[in-house]
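A reminder from the course coordinator: this example appears on the midterm review sheet, so study it carefully.

Given structure:
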């Protein structure tokens, strides 16, 4: 591989994040425990600098590192989602980790390493570089999941995540090895060209596709690869639950769209039906099981599973509309999911965990501001207009109808109606019941800023969606 100046220039955002994280490790060694918040604020600065660099270097398409890495509109769009989700997660963490008693500098550093892995995934056009980015992201998230060392649930969640994550990574790597053995390359464009020339479908390729679906399915918590999500969402620090529910999911979908709609597009007939079945089962499982949950973090875990099913429908639709609808969905999901977890963190103070759904009973009669935030984000997750969540689902459904998958769109609408119940149930508790306790909010400037950004994004996209959709369409990769 020829490491020239062009490679360095166009990978500068990734270099900034990794170099910044390494410098913060050294700084952490000389700071006292009550000064660890400085690392959080410096992390925010690193994210802003990397984001500015990404926008400056954004171009139609530049391939570097011997065609293993690309800088294009598609990768830029997803990197902005990663910057947004990490920025909001850091803001939500600054006060929260003090309350939880886990104020350590490496917390923020691991978030930066995880974000750098996501950035590599979004720009990778080679299966090997995709895998490297995925593992960098995953290993950091594993550690962050178990960051509350004193908490048994956090330790259990981290252990389950590590074991199942290692298993899924092995499956994914085996699928990659099969693709390489059948095509002689790991570069996505070359794989597509070879499969187009071959014409016939090899049984080995079918197995490779199944392994790839299983590996990527674990990362987005698609059924039946979802078993880790409820325990991990519940056991992880809430700020990390918010982070992992958005960033890694968006990164995984960035890769899934590239792999299946670019590299495996010539054999789409072999995987479209399987993905369609997977999406329906995922939507149904997430929506139905969420109905019986009493812990709000577990409920949001099953909600996340259902939302992965909706996003997979965009993969089934394919084409420019399908790709753009998933990209927009991931952006919307970042705002509303960071917002709902941010509100949970806002209510976490002292001995009050704010994790049981019944804890929110009568919130509107005690604190109207926090109740309104819950209302906005829950309505958006349910897909109720004029919030952004409605727009996200609407464009997914329209892309299905345009490509002739009307029955899938009808099923998705039915699942959306079912899922609305467990969101509206919380709204009813907040507004229609008498309070059973006082609510003392854990206010902080950082938390407030994060919630303001999340609310604005959720409302603006819901009211003015056309500009954001056009932005997504202009950024899709040629497929």
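Designed residues:
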């Amino acid at each position: 591989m020829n490491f020239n100046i062009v490679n360095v220039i166009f990978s500068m955002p990734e270099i900034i994040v990794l170099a910044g994280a390494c410098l913060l490790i050294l700084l952490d060694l000389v700071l006292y425990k009550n000064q660890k918040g400085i690392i959080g604020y410096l992390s925010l600065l690193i994210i802003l600098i990397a984001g500015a660099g990404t926008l400056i270097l954004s171009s139609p398409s530049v391939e570097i590192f011997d065609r293993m890495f690309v800088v294009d509109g598609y990768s830029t769009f997803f990197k902005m989602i990663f910057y947004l989700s990490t920025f909001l997660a850091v803001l939500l963490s600054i006060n929260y980790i003090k309350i939880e008693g886990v104020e350590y500098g490496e917390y923020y550093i691991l978030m930066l390493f995880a974000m750098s892995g996501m950035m590599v995934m979004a720009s990778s056009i080679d299966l090997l570089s995709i895998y490297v980015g995925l593992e960098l992201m995953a290993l950091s998230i594993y550690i962050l999941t178990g960051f509350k060392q004193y908490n048994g649930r956090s330790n259990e969640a981290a252990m389950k995540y590590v074991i199942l994550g290692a298993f899924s990574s092995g499956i994914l790597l085996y699928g990659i090895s099969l693709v390489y053995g059948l095509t002689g390359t790991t570069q996505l464009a070359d794989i597509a060209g070879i499969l187009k020339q071959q014409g016939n479908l090899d049984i080995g390729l079918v197995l490779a596709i199944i392994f790839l679906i299983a590996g990527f399915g674990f990362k987005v918590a698609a059924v039946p690869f979802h078993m880790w999500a409820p325990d991990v969402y519940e056991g992880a620090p809430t700020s990390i639950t918010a982070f992992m529910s958005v960033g890694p999911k968006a990164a995984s979908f960035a890769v899934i769209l590239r792999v299946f709609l670019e590299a495996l597009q010539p054999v789409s007939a072999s995987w479209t039906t399987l993905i369609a079945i997977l999406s329906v089962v995922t939507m149904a499982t997430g929506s139905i099981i969420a109905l019986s949950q009493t812990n709000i973090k577990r409920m949001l875990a099953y909600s996340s599973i259902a939302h992965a099913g909706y996003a997979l429908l965009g993969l089934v639709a394919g084409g420019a509309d399908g790709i753009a609808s998933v990209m927009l969905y991931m952006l919307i999901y970042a705002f509303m999911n960071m917002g709902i977890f941010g509100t949970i963190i806002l209510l976490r103070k002292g001995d009050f965990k704010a994790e049981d759904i019944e804890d929110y009973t009568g919130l509107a009669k005690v604190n109207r501001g926090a109740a309104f935030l819950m209302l906005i984000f829950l309505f958006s997750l349910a897909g109720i207009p004029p919030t952004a969540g409605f727009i996200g689902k609407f464009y997914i459904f329209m892309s299905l109808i345009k490509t002739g998958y009307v029955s899938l769109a009808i099923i998705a609408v039915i699942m959306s109606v079912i899922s609305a119940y467990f969101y509206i149930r919380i709204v009813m508790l907040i507004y229609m019941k008498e309070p059973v306790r006082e609510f003392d909010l854990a206010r902080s400037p950082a938390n407030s800023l994060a919630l303001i950004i999340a609310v604005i994004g959720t409302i603006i996209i819901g009211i003015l969606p056309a500009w954001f959709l056009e932005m997504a369409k202009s950024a899709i990769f040629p497929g």
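Residues 271-479 form one domain. The two ends are 27 Å apart (CA to CA).
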